[in-house]
Amino acid sequence: MVAKRGHEPPNPISDEMIHPSGSQPPDTESDRLPLLRLVRGLVNDGMNLVRLEVRMARLEVGERLQRFALDASLSATGAAIVVIGVLVFVEFLVIGLGVLLDGRYWLSSLIVGLVLIAVGAGIAWMGVRRFAGGTDASGADDRE
Predict the structure, then answer these.
(1) Is 88 domain-assigned?
(2) What is the pLDDT along the chain (144 residues), one digit of tens a residue?
(3) In a domain, 113, yes or no
(4) Under a CB-based contact definition with an 8 Å cutoff, are residues 25 and 19 in contact?
């Protein structure tokens, strides 16, 4: 069956099927209010989420700084104990060499001191040369 011009064919879906129990089609003005509330709620929730994330990041940074401070203090304490151990070992070398030199502890102190100065100066010189970019740790020239 072909519909005539100006006459619409009957709609097989009735208004009762779309809006049961006699309700009217939704009013566009009244529908905007709940939508605006929903959008405001989403924006507020998003802002709260960002605030909480920033607060959590601050707490994490604070925890990491505390852990870093503890680790640094442990490392410094360990280094101080190593220095004390090295000093005791140097004293052992001075006394042991003094016994071998028939009680001439002044001479053993001089020898141990000069050896330590020479070793320290050599290591420092290598570091200065490496810092300046002249050579690598093996002493080979690494300049291109």
Answers:
(1) yes
(2) 555 555 666 665 655 555 555 555 555 666 677 888 888 999 999 999 999 999 999 999 999 999 999 999 999 999 999 999 999 999 999 999 999 999 999 999 999 999 999 999 999 999 999 988 866 656 565 555
(3) yes
(4) yes
Say what the pTM is: 0.51
Question: Any idea what DSSP says for residue 135?
Answer: B
The whole-angstrom separation of Cα 26 and Cα 38 is 17
Tokens of 9: 């064919």
Range of the domain at 62: 33-131
CA separation for the pair 46, 59 (Å, rounded): 20
What SS3 class is residue 32? Answer: helix
Structure tokens belonging to residue 45 = 């929730």
What's the domain count of the chain? Answer: 1
* Cα–chain center distance at 92: 44
- Which residues, including other chains, have CB under 8 Å from residue 98's CB and lie 6 or more apart? 104, 105, 107, 108, 109
Domain contains 53: yes
Question: Are 108 and 116 contacting, i.e. CB atoms less than 8 angstroms apart?
Answer: no
